[in-house]
Design brief:
The chain has 11 helices and 3 strands. Helix content is 61%, strand content 3%. Helix 1 crosses helix 2, helix 2 crosses helix 3 and helix 2 packs across helix 4. It has 3 domains: 89 residues; 56 residues; 59 residues, no CATH class. With 236 residues, it is mainly α.
């Protein structure tokens, strides 16, 4: 992540500069006031303009320290004769060569706006990317749900529906052959089967198979179509 703090430029030989050595020999507070003034202008984008009293309060400096900085040429009062530095307003001083080494307020604002726009573009790009991924996920989910619904419909379609016993239903040849072989009264059982189905509002997919199961449970001796003589092999 980019460091958003404000910075001021200082030469690594700051304390070795002849002007600074003279100030340091005279007053440590004066040196601290100059250092604080550069930081203040960079932080508040004053383009090198600062109030001496504010720097005194920051560092505990005195009026004599202010005079030391003015006489050394590190600060300029209104009406100064330095050709490189602009004139400060009343009751303010200008930090010598500040804009030569530090960016002005206009440039600082441009950089800040550029960073803000870049951050906004990144945020919007990420937001759009997230929205796109979310939309894609929702679409995939919709596709999966639709596929599941189609599968359910397919299963329902393949499965034959249950229905009531048709009025036209009658025992088929397989039933007749089985009833004859097992000695079952087919007509009697068929009627019972119909009555039971209607009374209980039965719904079955395959009525022929249901009737075959019915016959399997039928009592043979009581429902036989043959007479006692036939069972004994006696023909009249």
């Amino acid at each position: 992540m980019a460091d958003k703090r404000a910075f001021a430029k200082f030469d690594v030989g700051y304390l070795d500069n002849p002007k600074m050595l003279d100030v340091l020999d005279s007053s440590l507070h004066a040196l601290c006031m100059h250092f604080a003034s550069v930081l203040y202008c960079s932080q508040h984008l004053t383009d090198g303009i600062v109030a001496p009293k504010a720097m005194q309060r920051k560092t505990g400096g005195s009026d004599a320290d202010v005079q030391i900085l003015l006489e050394s040429g590190l600060w300029h009062t209104p009406g100064h004769d330095c050709e490189n530095c602009p004139q400060p307003p009343a009751n303010k001083v200008y930090v010598h060569d500040f804009l030569e080494h530090n960016r002005d307020s206009a440039e600082a604002k441009r950089v800040s706006e550029k960073r803000s726009k870049a951050a906004k573009a990144r945020w919007e790009g990420e937001a759009n990317s997230n929205a796109s991924r979310m939309q894609s996920a929702l679409q995939n989910e919709d596709v999966c749900n639709a596929e599941r619904e189609r599968e359910k419909e397919s299963v329902v379609t393949r499965k034959k529906p249950a229905h009531r016993l048709p009025d036209s239903w009658a025992p088929n040849d397989t039933h007749k052959a089985y009833a004859s072989t097992e000695g079952i009264n087919l007509d009697f059982q068929a009627e019972r089967f119909r009555t039971h189905a209607e009374a209980n509002d039965r719904r079955i997919v395959n009525w022929d198979a249901a009737f075959k199961n019915w016959l399997l449970k039928a009592e043979r001796s009581k429902t036989s179509t043959s007479s006692p003589w036939d069972q004994l092999g006696v023909h009249t």
